[in-house]
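Following up on my earlier message about uridine 5'-triphosphate. Here are the inputs again, as you asked, copied directly from the submission form:
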Amino acid sequence: MKKVRKAVFPVAGLGTRFLPATKAVPKEMLTVVDRPVIQYVVDEAREAGIEHFIFVTGRNKAVIEDHFDIQFELNHTLAQRGKDDQLARLQRLQPLAGQTSFTRQQEPLGLGHAVWCARDIVGDEPFALLLPDMITLPDQGCMKSMVELYERTGTNVIAVEECDPEEAHKYGIVGKGANIHTGFEITGMVEKPKKGTAPSNLFINGRYILQPEIFKILENQERGAGNEIQLTDGMLKLARKQKFYGFHYRGRTFDCGSPEGFVEANVAFALSRPDMRAKVADLIEGLVADFGPVRRRSAS
Ligand code: UTP
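Thanks, got it. Here's what our run produced:
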């Protein structure tokens, strides 16, 4: 069985839900607490044993490449000023030379098309796919557990999480079959099912391990919903030939591609940090009192 060594990060979307913030700044570079969103997903992949990080970028995304480069002046200044902790942290997060690749999706034709753009860099081996605007809390562990499940099943793995059944129409939903190892057989996949028709309340949270045969399918994939080349359509075709397993992620995934999800992520990640939990909890309590729906302070 081939090891999962490479991860693809599609970062070529326009981020229209987050305009005007994303007019010049990629949404993947917006900051959750003190790290850009893209850093969380790269760290999650690295923890899972990924050795090569492939970014499918578009126009206005060059800053992502800069973020994963060495900033010599900054490192030099930090060293001169004795800021060893900050320097060590930057160095820990730095990919090694040759561990990153960047390719362009010239037009945002859809997630399926973005993944297809990585075909030559991935080659003939299974790969991890992480949607960079979806970040998980605990902020590591989801992809690591998926790789463990892949190593026992040798096929495609998709992470899912429970949602309120009333909200299932907003997501990609899978059907659940028999439990196998730490996962279960996926019996079907449907993108944004009509209300009341979802096969379960398990939504795809933006983490996949896919076999390279997906590329041939995506190459000929017609446009689907939203006039875009959809990954789910490609996976449905692949599922006719290969098994798909689900990994039920028990943490929480935050959609940082929408302003509400992004604010929620900032609050949750700050509250999960032992060094800031107490202070942030106090701040939130005070802010809710001052600006929240129950204006206790002004009412008294
Ligand atoms: P989204 O649909 O969430 O991203 O795609 P978007 O299109 O940037 O967002 P909105 O709806 O306009 O606000 C999921 C992921 O796939 C990437 C996005 O960058 C995001 O990480 N993507 C999407 C591409 O790389 N290329 C595409 O053509 C579409």
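One observation from looking it over: The chain has a mean pLDDT of 93. Hope that helps, and feel free to reply on this thread.
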